[in-house]
Specification:
- The structure is a single chain.
- This protein is of the alpha+beta class.
- The protein folds into two domains: 3-112, no CATH class; 125-267, no CATH class.
- Helices cover 65% and strands 8% of the residues.
- It has a four-stranded antiparallel beta sheet with strand order 1-2-6-3. A two-stranded antiparallel sheet has the order 4-5.
- Helix 1 (3-15) crosses helix 6, helix 3 crosses helix 5 (89-97) and helix 7 runs parallel beside helix 10.
- The protein is elongated, with a radius of gyration of 29 Å.
Length: 278
């Protein structure tokens, strides 16, 4: 496809978008010209097929194809009502998918919307990856705080590991930290949390916060008391997850957090420097 045509259509499609009360939409009459249709009758055939595809996908067609008839001036000074339709971005996508593929404009539109869909998927994936790294950092912070609280009470550097292990067993339905490492293929020398999905990382973090708070407010001073507290908090967190059908021990391993952090760092460094463009 001619690159000039691609650039023109890309710019034109976004430029004819309208916004009313925060809602983005396109007028079918304007989209008709952009997609290379000279006759409204033929363009409405593509719209009809798009409506049908919308309904088949489980969407309400009336939410995406809204009547927008309007009056236009005639040369004699009179006015005439013409049919028009306000379209959502999804409706525009469906029209492109059901348009005449022989038209270069339709071919472009199909490629454009496929790219936009993929772009959105990549954005959502990147946000989820950043959220997981932030959750992992927060868990490290809450473990450091809990470790400090325990050391203040017991004066023993090894007690934290024992208490955390009992908490893990409560969270993972009886499976110990070692059991979960073996199940998820985690190297023995690496923290289990580096391979847990975001929701499990946040669950462990919440249990840590609860234990730290209650150890201080209840003034617990023995390992048995702190262990019972931590086990109870992890049990409560597990119960809450279970009510939503989530079993932490059944979730698959996630990408190594260290590798994920390095990968995102490389990708961000490869992005163009906006200051160099200025």
């Amino acid at each position: 496809m001619n690159t000039d045509l691609v650039a023109r259509l890309f710019k034109s499609f976004e430029s004819i978008a309208h916004t009313r009360e925060g809602v983005e939409f396109w007028f079918a009459r304007e989209l008709q010209d952009l997609l290379g249709y000279t006759e409204w009758r033929k363009f409405t055939q593509a719209i009809t097929r798009a409506r049908s595809a919308c309904q088949q996908s489980g969407q309400r067609a009336e939410d995406h194809f809204v009547g927008a008839d309007k009056m236009v001036d005639l040369g004699s000074g009179a006015q005439r009502r013409i049919e028009d339709i306000a379209l959502t971005r999804y409706a525009c996508y469906l029209i492109a998918q059901n348009g005449d593929p022989r038209k270069p404009e339709i071919a472009f539109a199909q490629t454009y919307f496929a790219f936009q869909t993929r772009k959105q998927e990549l954005i959502e994936k990147r946000l989820a990856e950043h959220e997981r790294l932030q959750a992992r950092a927060q868990l490290a912070a809450s473990e450091k705080e809990l470790s400090g609280v325990i050391f203040e009470r017991l004066g023993d550097h090894e007690s934290f590991a024992r208490i955390r292990s009992k908490g893990d067993a409560a969270l993972f339905g009886g499976r110990t930290t070692a059991d979960m490492k073996q199940q998820l293929g985690v190297p023995a020398s690496r923290p289990l949390a580096d391979f847990l999905p975001t929701i499990t990382i946040k669950a462990k973090d919440l249990a840590n916060e609860m234990t730290s708070f209650n150890v201080k407010t209840s003034d617990l001073h023995t390992e048995a008391e702190i262990t019972d507290e931590h086990v109870e908090n992890n049990t409560e967190v597990r119960r809450a997850l279970g009510q939503r059908g989530i079993r932490p021990e059944a979730l698959p391993a996630a990408e190594d957090a260290k590798k994920l952090e390095r990968r995102l760092g490389r990708e961000e460094k490869s992005l163009p420097d906006e200051t160099e463009k200025a």
